[in-house]
């Protein structure tokens, strides 16, 4: 499965998870992804990219129904940063959640595999 | 920079990674050519697993709990249910439907192209149910915030920072009064039924919302909308009383008496205005001037000095009072009889000045019940009524009367620290005592207060003395009922009759009808007092003879219908000329500058048009400047000092108007401040540099300025005896110096009025980024369109109505119909308001009367099916 296809599929799953259970769906799915693809070095980064892409896609969908960037500007105004920064923070938040969850799960799985192997 | 696992090559699997601790913490930051012989863990490497674990933990914590004053970032930032969902609620859909419990028939709501809902209902109860729904739809957070402010429960939404405000609200007895008022309402009465209907509408909307649809303020506060109770409407009217009728006329005069004696104080803060341009016309064709010289400062009145310390300061009474420099809370209204209008139809203009906020204090709506009700105007979110507006026959508007409706009594109590009884007529009476708890957002008790009350009202300890107060705002009357009835009337007489029982806050109620009648009446509960009837003193609480003895009869109120002059106007000036009626109504009135200006404009125009009415509302002329500038210039004619000559030259160039591009008004304003500071040095409290309780008004200053030999010119801090010329010269020189220092050379652009005084329309939570700031507005102190120093108070709803065969109306408020900061309708009217433009108001008689191009959205409200 090529990289873009993996990103697309994982992104769709993450978008669905976000829609279904909220932001906690991101680390949850990414955790599973990281565990499943524990031997793939790029799995955590893929998860992060997919999560950012998923949330970006959801923001684009939201933008079709309302002034998303104006919301970003209003939120940015709370802390004196431009609206674009809020969008970036949002995408970075998704990336961070997914990357770290996949990384942690991958690591834990490797530990488990190693201990099984050692035994 | 790429992340690469130590000991692996690009693209290799991870299974070969060595483990020593069970943690895959052996990653280095580097390129694919990383040194594979490097130590397992080096100072330059970051254990990726640990980093990931920390990042995950940190993000989960921030996601769940939040930082930087925001709630959990996860629920806030996620794009489906997070704050981004606010965008979905920003604009009205083309059409929508909802159900409301209790609705009898289907209600059709058509939003026009100004986003004003036109509510077509089969009954009034259904109309007010729908009103509750549409107001909640646009202003849900405002509904709650205003109500909590009035109920003293802001801490439950905003936390400890609101404790002071809540404590003041409860100490004043406002929530307690609301409970008593609501308990006294007959459940069968119209007021009760409409308040309940309105409540049904608000709650029906609230219950349609999922958490991701809550207004953005709830999202950042991590709160949920409160269920709306009918009593909240009572709280809201109390809040208006707090804003409009909480003034202590005792305060300033008593403090001044403690400095310069009672006689001088009485003239500094006079009961009667020295310029009479009353609301009830006195038959004059010009203002009546009573400009006698001001009595000299006398010996301090020691009893007043003591009493002054016992009085609440303006700050403790109300933050608003200290914030206002003069008449920014003042409002204007006027009506012109057909014989003085170009079209031969009655014209009415309304312009209440209140706190400017986003969203606005007002919400525009039109309610139609065929054959029963057809009322258009503005409502205050939370009030089941159109407060200012018109129907097809009658138009009405208000200004604040500013009468003295609050008195204090010095009480003698049994225990100065924790009293339980007070003395009246030689007998002990038990105090009413209640414990108030202030809770935070989690329901934890933040603080408790023991609140006491006498038969007069709330009892408070101030500087060691116990003062009780009686205030008409706390009296048990429901005002909404008056507005409901008035909306159905069709003549001036009928409207005035419907409003006759209105009690508080007292208002100058102006009305005009289609038959060409115009009328005005200062309406409200005006106390009758024993003795000389004055309320401008502290009363002796030990005697029941000092209690209020009743209230004015309605026919004694200041009023006029179809006066010979052909117009009526009010601008918070003294309602009655004491030459015609000297009964005490209040004191320390707003200076009549605005009344003088509007009367001059109306006297000078015998063919008034609606455009004239709108133009008058932002007229930049200033009778105050017309009165002062010639005297200031005359006072320094002999001066040779360069700075004084230059200041006088610049001042003489001034047109005495306050357009946004005017570059001389600032010099006048600075000169007035300097002049007042130098003239009233006798009133200065040692060490403070200013009189607590406020400077005397402009009229007192004018009386001194007209008297070149007044002893008030002498400064106490110099051995010499100063005269008018010296003080005015020093004031002008200082004003020029300040203007140059703060704003540069006069014609370099820094003196433009728009850069000095402009409107700051703040979001309700004072969030700058959600506010409209530095909005230029034509007008200055004491013009018809004044602003407070902070720019936070000013014209809140400008309306002009022409009552012909078809009612025609124009209006605007600074803001927009939506309370959603992400909506295009949030502040879309601010620019037009700033320029003085009025929108044409659409008044369709049927839903079909609006063309498709004029319809923004449709809403169908249906009964709940069993």
Describe this structure in words.
The complex is a heterodimer of chains A (119) and B (866). Chain A has 119 residues and is mostly helical. Chain A is built from 5 helices and no strands. Chain A has helices at 3-21, 25-36, 43-65, 68-79, 83-118. In chain A, helix 1 runs antiparallel to helix 2, helix 1 crosses helix 3 (43-65) and helix 2 runs parallel beside helix 5. The longest helix of chain A is centred in the last third of the chain and has 36 residues, at 83-118. In chain A, 51% of the residues are buried. Chain B is α+β, with helices and mostly antiparallel strands. Chain B contains 25 helices and 36 strands. Chain B has an 11-stranded mixed β-sheet with strand order 3-36-4-5-12-13-14-15-23-24-28, with helices on one face. In chain B, strands 29-8-9-33-34-35 form a 6-stranded antiparallel β-sheet, with helices on one face. Chain B has a 6-stranded mixed β-sheet with strand order 19-20-21-22-16-26, covered by helices on one side. In chain B, a hairpin with a 3-residue loop joins strand 33 and strand 34. In chain B, helix 6 crosses helix 9 and helix 10 packs across helix 11. The radius of gyration of chain B is 31 Å and the shape is globular. The model of chain B is unreliable at 1-45 and 312-326 (pLDDT under 50). At the A-B interface, helix 3, helix 4 and helix 5 of A face helix 1 and helix 2 of B.
